[in-house]
Amino acid sequence: EVQLQASGGGSVQSGGSLTLACAASGFNFYEFEIGWFRQAPGKVLEGVSCISSYGDNTRYLDSVKGRFTISRDNANNIVYLQMNTLKPEDTAVYYCVILDFWGQGTQVTVSS
Fold first, then answer.
1. Distance between CA 82 and CA 108 in Å, rounded?
2. CA 13, CA 69: separation in Å to the nearest integer?
């Protein structure tokens, strides 16, 4: 059974930082690209970032480039999203996603 457990969300002030983590199990983690999506109330779902199976390729939503960094630890089946210089518009529930499987989400709230 595929399981994705996201953690690390919280409430910070504008300019602050958070690191999200997603622990995966139930599949060969190292074989798959994995991504982070976010959903803010009343807004469309956005793909924030993704990372290739061995971590050599990454992509980012334009609005987070230079502020967010995705990484992965294939030995421990974890993917991270380091978020710096957070803005109120980053407020959303963040999900880690692999293929059609979604984690439960973690809330990030950035106050101005």
1. 12
2. 19
Find out whether 20 and 12 touch, Cβ atoms under 8 Å: no
Structure letter (DSSP) for residue 85:
S
The answer for residues whose C-beta is within 8 angstroms of residue 75's C-beta and 6 or more apart is none
**Cβ(74)–Cβ(30) below 8 Å:** yes
Q: What is the pLDDT of residues 46-68, one digit of tens each?
A: 999 999 999 999 999 999 999 99
Of 26, 30, 39, residue with least CA distance to 74: 30
| Separation between Cα atoms, residue 28 and residue 112, nearest integer Å | 40
Secondary structure (3-state) at 31: helix
111 beta partners: 13
Task: Report the pLDDT averaged over residues 8-21.
Answer: 98
Contacts of residue 33, defined as CB under 8 A and 6 or more positions apart, other chains included, come to 50, 51, 52, 53, 98
